[in-house]
Amino acid sequence: MSNEVENPENSIDEVPSIGAPSLKAGIEAILLVVDEPVSAITLAQITNSPQPQVIKTLKDIQKEFETREGGITLREIAGGWRFYTNEHSGEVVERFLKDGQTARLTQASLETLAVIAYKQPVSRGRVAAIRGVNVDGVVRTLLNRGLIEEAGSDNESQAVLYRTTPYFLERVGIASLDELPPVADYLPNMAALDSIIDETIV
């Protein structure tokens, strides 16, 4: 008879990590960066948590925001959850977006706008691959400024595509995209670049 004692740690499956200090923190972080409502099922999969626990946490967060009467609210819309601006703060948000048109764009915004202008229609994933950084926040800024707009979705990945708007042409001072200065001398071979990007984007 063996005297070896089985290690309990080896007999119990490790619980997958949430990837955040708490389930609440993880959900809030995800909801802060999404562009569309995200379902409880998706949140459960991403946080490695039971769906009932995720739904309870969502409702707790929703109640917390309603109780403190702040400028943000959590809503369940179209089968998913997303943060929205509180309707009582709509006036100040509208004024900010309108007055913000005259504010200077950051370097990150300018670089992202340039990529979209020359590669349109293009997805956020492709723009991020070209720039080497996440561009979700910058894309939202450009959308709010009216400089870019959605242009359908990619046939294969179904990713949302973006293009510049007539307002972009107005702000740049050109009549059409054909008047954009050539950038071939400043960029690597575009065909080769596309090939590299396609290999890195799922």
Written account of the structure:
The chain has 10 helices and 5 strands. It is of the alpha+beta class. The strands form 2 sheets. It has a 3-stranded antiparallel β-sheet with strand order 3-5-4. A hairpin with a 2-residue loop joins strand 1 and strand 2.
Q: Which CATH architecture of the largest domain would you pick?
A: Orthogonal Bundle
Strand content: 5-15%
User: How far apart lie the N and C ends?
Assistant: 53 Å
Superfamily at the CATH H level of the largest domain? Winged helix-like DNA-binding domain superfamily/Winged helix DNA-binding domain
Gyration radius, rounded: 22 Å
Q: Give the neighbour order of strands across the main sheet.
A: 3-5-4
Question: Helical amount among residues, as a percent range?
Answer: 40-55%
Going by helix content, strand content and strand pairing, the class is: alpha+beta
* Whole-number mean pLDDT: 80
Protein topology:
Layout: H1 8-11, H2 23-33, H3 40-47, H4 51-68, E1 72-77, E2 80-85, H5 90-99, H6 107-119, E3 122-123, H7 124-131, H8 136-144, E4 148-153, E5 160-164, H9 166-172, H10 190-200
Antiparallel strand pairs: 1-2, 3-5, 4-5
Index terms:
about 10% strand; about 50% helix; 5 strands; globular; 2 domains; alpha+beta; about 200 residues; Arc Repressor Mutant, subunit A; disordered C terminus; 10 helices
Concise structural overview:
The chain is of the alpha+beta class. The chain has two domains: 11-88, Winged helix-like DNA-binding domain superfamily/Winged helix DNA-binding domain (Arc Repressor Mutant, subunit A, Orthogonal Bundle), CATH 1.10.10; 104-200, Winged helix-like DNA-binding domain superfamily/Winged helix DNA-binding domain (Arc Repressor Mutant, subunit A, Orthogonal Bundle). It is built from ten helices and five strands; from the N terminus they run ααααββααβααββαα.
